[in-house]
Specification:
The structure holds 2 protein chains of 2 kinds. By secondary structure, chain A is α/β, with parallel strands linked by helices. Chain A has a domain of 175 residues: P-loop containing nucleotide triphosphate hydrolases (Rossmann fold), CATH 3.40.50.300. In chain A, 33% of the residues lie in helices and 25% in strands. Chain A is built from 9 helices and 12 strands. In chain A, the strands form 3 sheets. Chain A has a 6-stranded mixed sheet with strand order 6-9-10-3-11-12, with helices on both faces. A 4-stranded antiparallel sheet of chain A has the order 2-1-4-5, with helices on one face. In chain A, helix 5 runs parallel beside helix 6. The N and C termini of chain A lie far apart (46 Å). By secondary structure, chain B is mainly alpha-helical. Helices cover 75% and strands 4% of the residues of chain B. Chain B is built from 15 helices and 4 strands. In chain B, strands 1-4 form a two-stranded antiparallel ribbon. In chain B, strand 2 and strand 3 form a beta hairpin. In chain B, helix 4 crosses helix 13 and helix 14 runs antiparallel to helix 15. Chain B is globular. Chain B starts with a helix and ends in a 5-residue tail after the last helix. Classes of the chains: A alpha/beta, B mainly alpha. At the A-B interface, helix 2 and strand 8 of A face helix 9, helix 10, helix 11 and helix 15 of B. The complex binds adenosine-5'-triphosphate and magnesium ion. Adenosine-5'-triphosphate binds next to strand 2 and helix 1 of chain A. The site of magnesium ion (MG) has 4 residues of chain A, from helix 1.
Chain lengths: 269, 333
């Protein structure tokens, strides 16, 4: 497939963070974070467990408000009071663990919170036929092969579930798509499938924020990289400025990893 | 398992349907009265008033909550109708309207407290239950000096109210109480709302995973409050039916029924954990209850066996539901 030409980055970025910080009581989960998200690009957020990645996306998604700093959408400062407000502004989030309702069917999940209706007044009803049709079509357009849209989402594999969630966000016109560790629980093959959908969304002109602690997943698909460590930014890098090895080293705190490699080596080996 | 079979197995009402057929056959084979039109009308009657409540309680359970005050609320509304109509001398329709406003207020309070405090609805509505139980007794004694409100049929407007809530209709050669028709109507309506409207989708989502639902923009709090108010409205309807039908109401009316509603909803396929169930299933659960309640005396068995049956049915249903949930949640992470 050939990606459509992406407009060169002119004007203000889709989304920009300036000195964002967030505390949980006395825990400083984030502090002084700067980042940029542009249309048709993938911004990767990397960091070890507890680095503040999920907290960062919760700020972007309207789950939490930032305690410090500013979030700019199209160059104008915004604050989201609820996930609904962020969604209405075109920011869709696929959560690490809470992507879908397992007991509900694929098509019901697909349209959850944005159900198409027909009829009016007391007869206004969920247009199930259209919902099923669109679900099937959108999943097919992303190359996702689902046998039966009536199947409960809980019976899908982890990768399939992530893919359905991504297709949903793209369908609902997300301008910014945030993915929290979409590949963390997946095997190599399924992770590859999910990354391919990430690239598809990007090629459709969506600005993607990909959270991961796996530099091998981030580097091939990412355009810029934000590395977090204990709530602070270790810098934002363009792909041309950093190699996969440097990224890995930076994430793990360089020297620590080398010490570990040393420690794990067989004596005399 | 092949697709169609699997899909049938996850229909929540399947178990209740099989159960209803088995129970009907069991009693119908042994008792001629049971299968006669009059017998059927007889066992449909307890099934209907229970069924109206069970259907509302099922919606609430699918939405992830319990309402232990649902039973006593039928008493509260029945007593309100009685007291306003007789002690305060109002037209019975005024009394019925007042009872509806009161019920909706209680339902709102339940829902509001549950969504605000995030405490289990079990404990919040246990509180409302006990408070209403006390109020029912206290206020009835205060107004009437006894524990009964009577002579409701003397209130102005009673004839029209009787027609709506307590008349009898000819259906296929048998005379059934109008509550049976209301029950069928409410079941159909609830089923339509649940499966064919946005609100229904939100009910499943809120009960299935409230945080996830909220994150995709479902108004989970409003949904929950609306469900508590629906249960309260159903209690109002049943309470009014009781008041108009019996023309006198005991202050302890409805106490203990709340668990029977939950039993019917669970037999009908509702999961105790929320997110799964059916209105038709709950109605079938109520039907099983009605058939067993009257079938046992028709066979001249001791009435004590009734609770044994009900308990066994509940256990079977819970075990069956567990399998369904396992299948549906077999997440291959
Ligand atoms: N609701 C909360 N209340 C208090 N502290 C929290 C809360 N959520 C996160 N934290 C803390 O904030 C810090 C950052 O957590 P966060 O979940 O953002 O990390 P993460 O980078 O997403 O980690 P992981 O890779 O494990 O998902 C951690 O120290 C965590 O314990
Ligand atoms: Mg996280």
């Amino acid at each position: 497939m050939t990606p459509p030409p992406v407009a060169p980055p002119v004007g203000p970025p889709l989304l920009e963070l300036r000195g964002v910080g967030k505390d949980y009581g006395s825990v400083i989960a984030l502090d002084g974070i700067d980042a940029t998200v542009r249309a048709g690009e993938v911004t990767c957020v990397l960091g070890d467990n507890g680095a503040g990645k999920s907290t960062l996306i919760k700020v972007l998604a309207g789950v939490h408000a930032a305690d410090r700093g500013a979030v700019l959408l199209d160059g104008a400062p915004v604050t989201f009071g609820s996930p609904r407000e962020a969604l209405d502004a075109g920011i869709a989030t696929v959560y690490q663990d809470l992507a879908m309702i397992p007991l509900m069917s694929i098509w019901r999940n697909f349209f959850l919170g944005a159900e198409p209706t027909r009829g009016w007044g007391p007869l206004r009803r969920f247009d199930a036929a259209r919902a099923k049709e669109v679900t099937r079509r959108e999943l097919a357009a992303m190359g996702i092969d689902i046998r039966d849209p009536d199947q409960p989402v809980g019976t899908l594999s982890g990768g399939e579930r992530q893919s359905v969630a991504i297709a949903r966000a793209v369908h609902f016109g997300a301008r910014v798509l945030i993915l929290d560790e979409p590949t963390s629980a997946l095997g190599v093959k399924q992770a590859g499938v999910v990354l391919r959908y990430v690239a598809q969304a990007r090629d459709r002109g969506v600005g993607v924020v990909l959270i991961t602690h796996n530099p091998h997943h981030a580097h091939p698909v990412g355009d810029r990289f934000l590395v977090l460590n204990r709530g602070r930014s270790l810098g934002e890098f363009a792909k041309t400025d950093i190699s996969r090895e440097e990224l890995t080293r930076l994430m793990a705190g360089g020297a620590e990893l080398e010490a570990l490699a040393h420690e794990l080596e067989r004596p005399g080996g | 398992m092949p697709g169609p079979l699997r899909r049938l197995l996850v229909k929540p009402e399947l178990g209740a349907l099989v159960g209803a057929v088995v129970v009907f056959t069991f009693f119908a084979v042994q008792s001629e009265v049971f299968r006669s039109p009059r017998g059927i009308a007889n066992w449909l009657d307890p099934a209907s008033t229970l069924g109206i409540m069970a259907v509302a309680v099922a919606l609430l359970m699918i939405g992830g909550h319990f309402d232990l005050s649902a039973g006593v609320m039928t008493g509260t509304t029945a007593l309100t109708v009685g007291i306003v109509a007789t002690e305060l001398g109002q037209n019975i329709w005024v009394a019925i309207g007042a009872a509806l406003v009161l019920a909706l207020a209680i339902g709102f309070a339940n829902g509001w407290l549950v969504t605000r405090t995030r405490l289990p609805s079990f404990i919040i509505t246990l509180g409302t239950f006990l408070m209403l139980q006390g109020l029912n007794l206290g206020l009835t004694k205060l107004f009437t000096g006894t524990v009964t409100v009577g002579e409701i049929d003397e209130a102005p407007g009673y004839a029209a109210a009787e027609w709506v809530f307590a008349s009898r209709v000819q259906v296929l050669g048998a005379e059934v109480r109008v509550a049976v028709l209301w029950w069928v109507l409410f079941t159909a309506l609830a089923s339509w709302v649940l499966l064919r409207t946005r609100f229904g989708n939100w009910v499943f989502a809120t009960g299935g995973d409230e945080v996830a639902a909220r994150n995709v923009g479902v108004p989970a709090r409003r949904t929950t409050i609306a469900l508590f108010m629906t249960t309260a409205a159903a209690a109002w309807f049943v309470g009014t039916t009781l008041a108009v039908r019996l023309t006198s109401v005991q202050a302890n009316t409805g106490i203990g029924q709340e668990l029977i509603y939950i039993v019917a909803a669970v037999i009908g396929g509702c999961l105790l954990t929320g997110g799964f169930g059916s209105a038709v299933g709950a109605a079938l659960g109520a039907l099983i209850f009605g058939m067993t309640l009257l079938g046992i005396p028709y066979l001249r068995w001791d009435a004590d066996w009734f609770y044994f049956f009900l308990g066994a049915m509940l256990l079977l249903a819970v075990l069956a539901n567990r399998l369904v949930r396992r299948y549906a949640e077999a997440a291959r992470r």
